[in-house]
Write a sequence for this structure.
């Protein structure tokens, strides 16, 4: 009887088994699982976190010969609300949006924030990183140094 009163749907979830015994990693996995279930109940959110700590489905990282391109769907922000930093080999993306106003029926306040950090691969030219925000998508171009760019090797027949 209770099944007819409360909407319930079973979802297939990937099992993320941690065998290293690291209590911090286990705690993060448990928190990520709780967060995912909570987001499913309320209908989603800005990000779709993975239990492995990887990029969310609303973020992508492309790798070509000369650069990495990171794209993140982050609607509702203005370019000046982003704070993009590189410290050592850690890239940090942060944004915060605050808005207050009055309408004929009363006042309102909106708030949104985003924070994520990534460990960069070796050989990124930090001083050449380019960040642009357009139509709700933050796009970062992370150029590789010459020594880290893939070199093509010709294969000859014997």
């Amino acid at each position: 009887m209770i099944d007819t009163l409360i909407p319930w749907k079973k979802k297939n979830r990937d099992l993320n088994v941690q065998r290293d015994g690291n209590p911090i990693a286990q705690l993060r996995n448990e928190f990520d699982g709780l967060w995912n279930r909570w987001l499913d109940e309320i209908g989603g959110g800005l990000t779709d976190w993975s239990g492995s700590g990887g990029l969310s489905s609303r973020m992508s990282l492309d790798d070509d010969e000369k650069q990495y391109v990171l794209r993140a769907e982050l609607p509702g922000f203005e370019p000046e609300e982003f704070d993009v930093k590189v410290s050592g080999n850690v890239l940090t993306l942060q944004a915060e949006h605050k808005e207050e106003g009055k309408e004929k029926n009363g006042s309102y306040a909106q708030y949104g924030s985003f924070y994520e950090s990534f460990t960069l691969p070796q050989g990124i030219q930090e001083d050449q990183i380019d960040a642009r925000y357009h139509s709700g998508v933050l796009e970062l171009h992370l150029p590789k140094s010459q020594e880290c760019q893939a070199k093509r090797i010709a294969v000859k027949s014997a």
